[in-house]
Design brief:
single chain, 484 residues, Pdz3 Domain, 4 domains, six-stranded mixed sheet, 14 helices, 19 strands, flat
């Protein structure tokens, strides 16, 4: 809310007036003390917390002095709320922790929606890393996934606004929007040239569990995130797979950026034997809390777990738990590596602080932060699964020379179309391959790569990736051997 004071009202008030600087200081101090009290309560448990005296924070005198100078000498009126929010942002930003952030009331609402209900946007988990906004993982079935966004992609800009130096919450405000609206991202993928991606926002579904029965009685259950409903969804999915004769289980955590820790613990409880360690929590004072499985029974069919670079946080907790405490094999590629735990504290104005308060360790005491979990069996997806997005708004025809032409030719080659040499030039062979693609897709055979033709090319490639999921194939192979 903008509560900037009206100058005329201030001049006409004869009986009551709040000076701006003491008012700002009062609000800031209340917020700061509430954070301090919360931090202390996390370390002392249920013991009574005494409010710390103000004079314990004399080191903040410089901040107060700066604010006073700004209030008295800045050339124009200042926005009290913006000043306070900026001070809090700066305080938390100095921790150099991408997972500790301040969210205003609007950002808090968005954050809560992503955990507990559907929301509108593109469907990608992001985080700030080295002053850049990085995609942790696109959510299954969302516009972000369909547009070909991948873990570790850097979002350079949103609708022309550069993101360098922004917090993840600031970036989210630019990326999210109403269903049906479009947003244009510029993406940096590894050492490739940055490329543009235009995405139509949609409603991001609540559903987080997708189950299907594969051959030989092997069930594949994909968890896309850990939200408030995930445990119930997974329990239902397991019951359905059992009814269909499940003999083995692939728990697919690829592209799962994490979520609620209690959901991760409940899900690990389904697979880790009673009394075995699920994970450990190490607090700042060195105290370690050990969380153990507490259940009457576990899923008893042979099982493997799939992870990749988009598997983070709660996904890694589950993967490490079943690996180290239940001897279940991990297959895929190295996971993301997020080994810290966050809590949220609501402030009086409905804003919120998300604060890192501990590390989490694997059952054997390993810290996977920025290292990830190395699979027992490492399997990479085909190289064409890493190809970048091609904008359907751009047109390429004979004579065009661009990086996108090279990407298109690689896609066509992977799909079995004859394109001659894979290079950066759109030649007659490329035109012929495009015409064949258009014929196969019931499109007008113009030989031009644009619009529906570009979308058809990328959709065919997506289907090819699903059909040649080398990681899932390996999981099925391993389970088939165990079942026999």
């Amino acid at each position: 809310m903008d509560e900037k004071k009206n100058e005329e009202m201030e001049k006409d008030s004869k009986y009551f007036k709040i000076k701006k600087f003491p008012f700002i200081m009062g609000i800031f101090l209340v917020i700061f003390l509430s954070v301090a009290i919360t931090a202390i309560s996390l370390t002392v448990g249920e013991e009574k917390v005494q409010q710390p005296p103000v004079n314990e924070y004399s080191e903040f005198n410089k901040l107060f002095e700066t604010l006073k100078i700004v209030d008295e000498k800045y050339y124009t009126d200042i926005d009290d709320e913006a000043l306070i929010n900026g001070a809090i942002d700066g305080l938390l930003g100095a921790l150099n922790d991408p997972y500790t952030t301040y969210m205003d009331a609007s950002e808090t609402k968005n954050f809560n929606e992503q955990i507990s209900s559907s929301f509108e946007g593109i469907g990608a988990e992001i985080q700030e890393k080295d002053s850049q906004i990085m995609i942790v993982s696109p959510i299954k079935g969302t516009p972000a996934e369909k547009a070909g966004l991948q873990p570790n992609d850097i979002i350079v800009s949103v609708d022309g606004t550069e993101l360098t130096g922004m917090s993840s919450t600031e970036a989210v405000k630019l990326i999210k929007g109403e269903k049906g609206t479009t947003v244009e991202l510029v993406i940096q993928r590894g050492s490739q040239e940055p490329f543009g991606v235009k995405i139509t926002r949609d409603t991001i579904p609540v559903e987080t569990v997708y189950a299907e029965m594969l051959d030989n009685g092997i069930a594949s259950i994909h968890l896309t995130s850990f939200s408030t409903s995930t445990m119930n969804e997974l329990t239902t999915a397991l019951e359905e797979m059992n009814e269909q004769g499940m003999k083995g289980l692939v728990l697919d955590l690829r592209g799962n950026p994490g979520g609620l820790m209690d959901q991760a613990v409940n899900i690990a409880n389904l697979f880790v034997p009673n009394g075995e360690v699920i994970f450990q929590v190490e607090y700042g004072d060195g105290k370690i809390e050990v969380v153990k499985a507490s259940n009457k029974e576990t899923v008893e069919v042979p099982m493997v777990v799939l992870v990749d670079s988009g598997s983070a946080s709660a996904s890694e907790i589950v993967a490490a738990a079943v690996s180290e405490s239940a001897d279940i094999q991990i297959i895929g590629s190295n996971s993301f590596g997020k080994g810290t735990v966050q809590t949220t504290e609501q402030l009086e104005d409905n804003s919120m602080i998300k604060l890192t308060y501990a590390k989490w360790l694997t059952p054997k005491g390993n810290w996977v932060h920025e290292k990830g979990i190395k699979p027992d069996i490492e399997v990479e997806l085909p190289s064409y699964a890493q190809l970048s997005y091609i904008s359907p708004d751009e047109q390429y025809t004979v004579g065009s020379s661009a990086a996108e032409v090279n990407v298109a030719e690689q896609m066509l080659d992977a799909l079995g179309y004859d394109i001659g040499n894979v290079d950066y030039t759109f030649d007659k062979s490329t035109e012929a391959a495009i015409k064949k693609l258009q014929a196969d897709s019931n499109l007008k055979q113009t030989g031009i790569l644009e619009g529906d033709t570009t979308l058809a090319l990328m959709n065919q490639l997506r289907e090819l990736i699903l059909q040649n999921d080398t990681q899932l194939d390996k999981a099925v192979e391993v389970l088939s051997g165990q079942i026999k």
